[in-house]
Amino acid sequence: MDAAARERRIPGRRVRLTARPRWWLGSGVLLLAAGLTWALRHAYQTAAASRLPTRAELPHRVTVEVLNSTKVPGIARVGMLALRHAGLDVVYFGNADSALSGRQQSQVLVRRGDTTGVGRVIEALGQAVVIDAPDRARVVDLTVLIGAGYVLAKPATRP
User: Fold this and answer.
1) Rg (CA), the chain
2) Sheet strands side by side (includes 107-110)
3) How many domains is the chain built from?
4) Measured between alpha carbons, how far apart are the two ends of the chain, in Å?
5) What is the model's pTM?
6) Residue 7 counted as domain residue
7) How far apart are CA 63 and CA 103, in angstroms?
8) Looking at the chain, which terminus has fewer C-beta neighbours within 10 angstroms, N or C?
9) Domain identity same for 92 and 21
10) DSSP string for residues in 142-156
């Protein structure tokens, strides 16, 4: 607007918005809505996270191997997923050899003398017998033998 046009304006009259101010106004409204949405979402997530029970961290990394001692295929993989969800580091899963197969109840073999993580295994898989079975040749802290009792307690699902 030039100076002459400014002087011709009559006070109290409505001023029409041109395309440029409409664009800025629309952009401002969208930014305000996006900011409000983000703030509400952040507040909701923070409140939801504070309601979740927190699990105590383990003092060190616990390595686990999961062995299927039953004849049900794929149950070691199901156990591996449950233990990883519980915060344990599963480094191997597979079938147990003939000396370790045929267990009726799940067993946790403590390989390095440290029982850290045994509680998480029992919490994730249910009842299990804890056995001190040192084996320095193994590179794991715990060996979990999944028995027939776990298979009966958990319905057969595809891993």
Assistant:
1) 32
2) 89-95, 63-68, 142-146, 107-110, 129-132
3) 2
4) 72
5) 0.62
6) no
7) 22
8) N
9) no
10) EEEEE-HHHHHHSPP
Residues 101 and 141 grouped into a single domain: yes
Report the DSSP beta bridge partners of residue 145: 67, 107
CATH number for the domain that contains residue 141: 3.30.70
Q: Which residues of 117-149 are buried (b: 16+ CB within 10 A; e: fewer)?
A: bbebbbebbeebeeeeeeeeebebbbbbbbbbb
Hey, what are 65's tokens?
A: 């191997």
pLDDT digits (tens, 9 = 90+) for 87-120: 999 999 999 998 888 888 999 999 988 888 999 9
| DSSP letter (8 states) at residue 14 | P
Does the residue 122 lie in any domain? Answer: yes
Q: What are 35-94's pLDDT values in tens digits?
A: 888 888 888 777 766 665 556 788 888 999 999 999 889 999 999 999 999 999 999 999
Residues 28 and 92 in one domain: no
Tokens describing residue 9: 């304006």
